[in-house]
Design a protein that fits this description.
This protein folds into three domains: 132 residues, no CATH class; 66 residues, no CATH class; 74 residues, Alpha-Beta Plaits. It has eight helices and 13 strands. The strands form four sheets. It has a four-stranded antiparallel β-sheet with strand order 11-12-10-13. The chain has a three-stranded antiparallel β-sheet with strand order 1-2-5. Strands 3-4-9 form a three-stranded antiparallel β-sheet, covered by helices on one side. It starts with a helix and ends with a strand. 15% of the residues are buried.
Length: 339
């Protein structure tokens, strides 16, 4: 009965505290697609358990009193009895099954792991949505086959006879008229060049070089110029100003851009303990679950010893592995970048 009330409160609250026992903390998660199993999971709430939050905030007791129609004192006694029974079960067996909510497992004296029931979705906006498997789409044709088909089609098109249609005939007719006009201009220029007409000097098409055309044009205009021998020329002092403006030049190739990019590595943390002995035991438990790379990290400056499932290179790969571990083993797992 108390478990049912806890589930109902988690629909609308992020934290539900059970006095003298602990607190269930929920967090909304978006829809996820597992690229390994092609499993599409609807939006939901992740639920974790914190055994350190035991101070009564009145939420659960007040809700029980409202639902049962009893006084706060009687409701507090009901919650106290539930917490006492739960503590006895989890201390004796290490596992507490909460029907309709999930399974609570004790890792050590202070840490717990909660696995929510797979049929339970505490996210009201996704009520009724279930997980489904999405079948990937594969192309039947490879890129090599497509390239071969294109090459074959081009060869077949080259072998087809070219037919002259109405549009091609228009282009042929325009080209023929252009060639006739150009030929007529050449004949007229040749005739003018052979005659004594002044117009012949303005036809540049019948000279061997542009210089010959210019000399011919100057002679016809009766322009007279005097040239002085190079030997009699006086030297001229020329001062070349120095440009003080900045000169644009190509930047040298940045060698740093050619260096390989460092890929960060990330630990997938499954537990954070105060004792190195307990951390080593926890790492061995992870190894028995199949995580051969499980290791207890050195104690940090706050006195915590973190236990990692594995070390993964690359943030994208680490995020994918984290989602798999959170789904199959530990909802409270998180990433820690290796320094």
């Amino acid at each position: 009965m108390i478990v049912k009330y806890i589930s109902e409160l988690l629909f609308d609250h992020e934290c539900v505290i059970i006095p003298e026992f602990g607190a269930f903390i929920s967090k909304e998660t978006p829809a996820m697609l597992d690229y390994t199993t092609h499993r599409l999971t609807p939006p939901s709430k992740e639920v974790a358990f914190n055994g350190q939050l035991v101070t009564d905030d009145g939420l659960l007791i007040g809700y029980v009193a409202q639902k049962q129609g009893v006084t706060m004192t009687e409701a507090a006694k009901m919650v106290h009895d539930f917490a006492s029974r739960s503590l006895v079960v989890i201390e004796s067996s290490g596992v507490l099954r909460l029907d309709g909510l999930g399974v609570l497992t004790r890792i050590n004296e202070r840490d717990y792991f909660f696995q929510i029931d797979e049929n339970m979705n505490l996210f009201g906006d996704a009520f009724g949505l279930t997980s489904l498997t999405v079948q990937p789409i594969f192309r039947r044709e490879t890129y090599q086959q497509i390239a071969t088909q294109i090459e074959t089609a081009q060869k077949e098109r080259e072998n087809y006879p070219h037919h002259v249609n109405a549009n091609n005939y228009k282009w042929f007719r325009a080209a023929a008229y252009s060639m006739m006009v150009a030929f007529a201009l050449v004949i007229l220029g040749w005739g003018a060049n052979k005659s004594d007409s002044r117009l012949a000097s303005w036809n540049p098409l019948f000279y061997s070089s542009p210089n010959e055309f210019i000399v011919k044009l100057l002679n016809n205009d009766a322009v007279t110029r005097e040239f002085t021998s190079v030997a009699t020329l006086q030297p001229i002092n020329v001062t070349v100003p120095i440009c003080k403006e900045e000169v644009n030049y190509l930047q040298p190739l940045d060698i740093e851009l050619l260096k390989p990019v460092n890929i960060d590595s990330y630990y997938i943390i499954g537990a954070s303990l105060r004792s190195e002995v307990e951390a080593a035991k926890c790492a061995k438990r992870f190894q028995k679950l199949g995580f051969e790379g499980a290791v207890a990290l050195p104690m940090n400056e706050k006195g915590n010893v973190r236990v990692a499932y594995e070390l993964v290179a690359g943030k994208d790969t680490a995020l994918k592995r984290l989602e798999i571990i959170k789904k199959d083993h530990n909802e409270a797992a998180w990433l820690l970048r290796k320094k």
